[in-house]
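Annotated sample (chain length 212).
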Amino acid sequence: MEQFGIIHFGLFCLAVMLLNATPGPDTAYIVGRSIAQGRTAGLISALGISVGCLFHAFASAFGLTAIIATSALAFTIIKLAGGAYLIYLGVRMLFSKPAVLIARSTEPERRPLQKIFWQAVLTNILNPKVVLFFLSFFPQFVSTDASHKTSAFLLLGATFALMSTLWNSGTAVLAGTLARRASQNPRYKLWLERFVGTAFVGLGIKLLLTKH
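Output written by the structure step:
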């Protein structure tokens, strides 16, 4: 990887693995979709999250992330939008009619996969902590005298997205499998969705209240 201006690539991969293992809004969204709509929806969500990561990689490579991070107004707008979006998703789960939730235990929700995908993309893009992560983390693994820094950023971004897809797909399969077993008990699944909805709202509020 040194020919691309990338240094300590093994350490980079290890750091990405540790980051993926840390629960956050992306994980909560994937688990929530897997529980509500099954493994396929969870896998589509994982793919959407990875596309969001690629967006941040492109933004970092071409300097957009730096502009956002240095602009207090831009950062605040993204933070408010991201927090509000998570709260919106959580409130929808919390206040869904019980009868509808119980019906889901025997028949998966007929929500278009395209909509699930784009919701996942927005969940990742509207997370300002991801913006700061790409801005502060990626430069540590790009040589200061690299002749093609843009290519190095893009390659690191692709690696990050690939590793995240593998990890998040495993999370989706596991959550979807557990939800399928829980579907035999409608009330259990109802409270499980309530719990995930509460987690969404909590993460959104935390994001809104975070100063940095």
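Annotation: Residues 149-182 form the longest helix (34 residues).
Annotation: Residues 99-108 have pLDDT under 50 and may be disordered.
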